[in-house]
Amino acid sequence: MFSIGAVGLIFEVSSLFSNSISAVGLPIVPIMAVFFFNDKMNGIKGVSMALAVWGFVSYVYQYYVDGQKSDKKTLDEASS
């Protein structure tokens, strides 16, 4: 079901947005498994969720930095 939704996002919005949503959903699935299926939360799940969140935050931060650089470049070109 998730892959069908991802394909829909690619067709309707963009593959970049679909990838972002997939990265956000990655740590949510184990959390839901712990709550709904009474799955045990062990160290490996905790580390994998921390790495998934870290990866997503790094991705968003890099997008922000690239946006700041392009804004500065646009302002420099406009003032010359």
From TrEMBL:
TM segment ranges: 20-37, 44-64
InterPro entries: PUP_plant
Compartment(s) where it occurs, according to its Swiss-Prot or TrEMBL record: Membrane
Major place of residence: membrane
Gene Ontology molecular-function annotations: purine nucleobase transmembrane transporter activity; purine nucleoside transmembrane transporter activity
Keyword tags: Membrane, Transmembrane, Transmembrane helix, Transport
Record-linked Pfam families: PUNUT
The keyword Transport appears for this protein: yes
GO terms for cellular component: membrane
Family stated for the protein in its record: Belongs to the purine permeases (TC 2.A.7.14) family.
Protein name per UniProt: Purine permease
Species of the source: Linum tenue
